[in-house]
Amino acid sequence: MYQWDFGLVWTYRWLLLDGFAVTVGFTVAIVVLGLVAGLLAALGKLSPLRPVAWLASAYIEVFRCTPLLVQLVWFYYALPILSGIEMSAISAGILALSLYGGSFYAEIIRGGIVSIDKGQTEAGEALGMLPSQVMRRVVLPQALKRMVPPLMNQSIIQFKNTSLVSVLAVPDLLYQGQVAAHDSYRPLELYTVIAIIYFLALFPLTLLVKRGETRLAVTD
Amino acid sequence: MAIESTMTEPKIEVAALRKRFGDLEVLKDINLTVEAGGVVALIGPSGSGKSTLLRCMNLLVAPDGGRVRVGADSFDFGNSGQLPPAKTLARFRANTGMVFQHFNLFPHMSVLANVMEGPLTVRRMPKAQAEPLARSLLVKVGLADKADAYPNKLSGGQKQRVAIARALAMEPEVMLFDEATSALDPELVGEVLQVMRALAAEGMTMVIVTHEIAFAREVADRVVFMRDGVVVEEGPARAVIDTPREEATRAFLSHFHRRGEAVPG
């Protein structure tokens, strides 16, 4: 029977805390940038201009249909050679994760926008609003309410996806855990604790999403 | 466009208007004028093209050809069916108020915010000016006490009256009503018609697509009967409704009682 020794993990508390901070920072960055990319791609896909719509679709499908790990590695190793732009592991990680998340956000945002009754757009147009004003004042505020739960859900997935950047030696929670595991020869304890940290960070968020969904069902 | 005396120039002019949806020719060479302060009722069976005609008047639907003029803004669609640029379109629509069958109030805004939305966003009016305007319009439609309510708390009749106030807040030159009472429970129709009646009495230029024949007879100066995308008969409201000249008009009106109420069923 394996003898657990969690006391040892305490020795690495600052290391793990550092890693956790990197993970949280990474998540914030890729959620914000991903939402920007997603919004642009969603609006692009809805654009009446064919080339714009095609470009947005191409972006969404390429990133939805290739594995994130492959994208990370590709952005870190292949892109600098092709583009000549040297990229740190952190920038490559943020870029790949944001674009990957953005492709999923885009479909959520587009779905939210098209779910709004056409009459709402007509009412805005009839008042004399420009298409951009109709989107900003009438459609998006209503669509956003419907989008929040699935966007939160996708962001939770993004939080977990940040663990993949450890393959690029970005010192996130998982990477620091690996360092500690190698150092202490106690991988079981460390990986267990890391799993628990991810869980404790995300479980309250899932409760929040659930509450949001219930509230939405009431007001709709 | 030829310069005419503004005294006699009609407020709305529709000339040689054509529209097709796919293979279906919805409007075939429609000509129509509405005098300033005039009230025109468009009647006719479903699918006759009356709603499409109304929607062409504020270019929510792009005509395939012909000319539309409201006030000083005129668009010639030639044979292109190409809509003018978004900015020109928006400015044109700001000058025409539209009331929809299904109200289309903004559900995420209070009643007051719904009415202020046009002035604030489109006319760039300061809030200090838009709010008294919106409140005075809510008084006018009898809903001053509902200013802070949200649309989902209102009855259909109240929603439609808010929608009228919202359209009026743009201080448009003309008001277009697209079956404004068709989605209402019968007992709520009266309050909306009352508001429309008052507007007509004030001298607002109005085009009304309606199935309320009695209302059309009472409030409209002129009635236009449409069928299959053409104007079959047009004339003074009472004359067209009481003594239609065309067989098709007679057949359509025979579905209503003489007093104009729809036959049940």
Automatic annotation (TrEMBL), chain A:
InterPro entries registered for this protein in UniProt? AA_ABC_transptr_permease_3TM (IPR010065), ArtM/GltK/GlnP/TcyL/YhdX-like (IPR043429), MetI-like (IPR000515), MetI-like_sf (IPR035906)
Q: Which PROSITE patterns does the UniProt record give?
A: ABC_TM1
* Domain (ABC transmembrane type-1) ranges: 20-209
UniProt-listed CDD domains: TM_PBP2
Q: Please give one Pfam family short name.
A: BPD_transp_1
First-listed, main subcellular location of the protein, grouped into a coarse class: membrane
Q: Topology versus the membrane, per the UniProt entry?
A: Multi-pass membrane protein
Q: Which UniProt keywords apply?
A: Amino-acid transport, Cell membrane, Membrane, Transmembrane, Transmembrane helix, Transport
> A biological process (GO) annotation for this entry?
amino acid transport
Q: Where in the cell is it found?
A: Cell inner membrane; Cell membrane
Q: Which GO terms describe its cellular component?
A: ATP-binding cassette (ABC) transporter complex
Q: Does the keyword Transmembrane helix apply?
A: yes
GO MF terms, alphabetically ordered: transmembrane transporter activity
Query: TM segments?
Result: 20-40, 190-209
Q: What the protein does?
A: Part of the binding-protein-dependent transport system for glutamine; probably responsible for the translocation of the substrate across the membrane. Part of the ABC transporter complex GltIJKL involved in glutamate and aspartate uptake. Probably responsible for the translocation of the substrate across the membrane.
Q: Which family does it belong to?
A: Belongs to the binding-protein-dependent transport system permease family. HisMQ subfamily.
Describe its assembly.
Answer: The complex is composed of two ATP-binding proteins (GltL), two transmembrane proteins (GltJ and GltK) and a solute-binding protein (GltI).
Q: This protein is called what?
A: Glutamate/aspartate import permease protein GltK
UniProtKB/TrEMBL annotation, chain B:
By its UniProt entry, which SUPFAM superfamilies does this protein fall under?
Answer: P-loop containing nucleoside triphosphate hydrolases
Under PROSITE patterns, the record lists: ABC_TRANSPORTER_1, ABC_TRANSPORTER_2
Membrane topology per the entry is:
Peripheral membrane protein
Instruction: Please indicate if the UniProt record lists Phosphoprotein as a keyword.
Output: no
Residue limits of the ABC transporter domain?
12-253
Principal location class: membrane
Q: Where in the cell is it found?
A: Cell membrane
Alphabetized GO MF terms: ABC-type amino acid transporter activity; ATP binding; ATP hydrolysis activity
Q: Which Pfam families does the record associate with it?
A: ABC_tran
Record keywords, A-Z? ATP-binding, Cell membrane, Membrane, Nucleotide-binding, Transport
- Cellular component per GO? plasma membrane
The UniProt entry's sequence similarity note says:
Belongs to the ABC transporter superfamily.
Q: What name appears for this protein in its UniProt entry?
A: ABC transporter ATP-binding protein
- What are the top taxonomic ranks of the organism? Bacteria, Pseudomonadati, Pseudomonadota, Alphaproteobacteria, Hyphomicrobiales
